[in-house]
Amino acid sequence: xxxxxxxxxxxxxxxxxxxxxxxxxxxxxxxxxxxxxxxxxxxxxxxxxxxxxxxxxxxxxxxxxxxxxxxxxxxxxxxxxxxxxxxxxxxxxxxxxxxxxxxxxxxxxxxxxxxxxxxxxxxxxxxxxxxxxxxxxxxxxxxxxxxxxxxxxxxxxxxxxxxxxxxxxxxxxxxxxxxx
Length: 180
What we know:
By secondary structure, the protein is an all-alpha fold. It has helices spanning 4-42, 44-59, 70-101, 112-130, 134-145, 150-157, 161-179. The chain folds into two domains: 4-87, Rna Polymerase Sigma Factor, Chain: A, CATH 1.10.1740; 102-179, Orthogonal Bundle (Arc Repressor Mutant, subunit A). The protein is elongated, with a radius of gyration of 24 Å. The model is unreliable at 96-103 (pLDDT under 50). The protein is 81% helix and 0% strand.
């Protein structure tokens, strides 16, 4: 009588190796074109992170083997990521404008009520900034008060640009919450 359980166990590594080869081939055949596409859309600094995210999302697809045209599917994932990236940049720009106004000094001609309100807002913002987690505070201070570009912040802190964006979003969210 054959031992079917043993046969099933032998098939598992074979199926795993086949899937691994499939993924390896897809990656090697498409990474160069996708990287070029991403560089053109978002620049060299963000492109490598988005390339990695593209393949990660591809690998997380529940029915990977059922994808009829993997290169087109990868291209669509990359395109969606560039759109998300552009939206995030636009949102960041709005928030950075908000932040740039937060450290202005009230004009000497301002009414006493306006000066008091401005000083109160400044105290609230300062307290909120001091309460931030250390890395968020560091990203916020470098970006807003030292005028260091976010790509440079990432290099100086030796973290990814995506992490810089995340820290900045957290910081800005908490600063806005402090004013509400």
